[in-house]
Every structure is written in structure tokens, then in C-alpha cells.
Amino acid sequence: MEDRTLVCQDCGQDFVFTVGEQEFYKEKGFDNEPKRCKECREKKKNERRSFRNDR
Fold first, then answer.
1. How do the domains of the chain map onto residue ranges?
2. pLDDT per residue over 2-36, tens digit each?
3. Which SS3 state, helix, strand or coil, does residue 25 take?
4. Which of 4, 5, 52, 53 could form a cystine bridge with 17, CB 3.0-4.6 A?
């Protein structure tokens, strides 16, 4: 296994999917690689939290 460079579906920037992250995904049984960079994942998570708190 080696680090892989992916493109974020939200911002279009390249990001590295490290060997450690790949091992974590495999350990958790995730079949798909991430579609968003860390910053966009955090932004999306915060948006979901904010939406839930507004209800």
C-alpha cells in the first residue's frame, strides 16, 4: 500500500489518502475511499450538526 492522491468532490483540491487512513478504512470495513478532503469533511460535519441543533 502507498499514499494516494485524490481530488475533493467539493472544492476540487488534491488531497492525500495516507496509508494509515487506508488501513483505518479497511479495518472499519469501508469499501469506498473518501470523496472530500479533511477541510470539506469537517465543514460538512459542522453543517449537519448546525442543522440538527436548529430543529
1. 4-54
2. 999 999 999 999 999 999 999 999 999 999 999 99
3. helix
4. 4
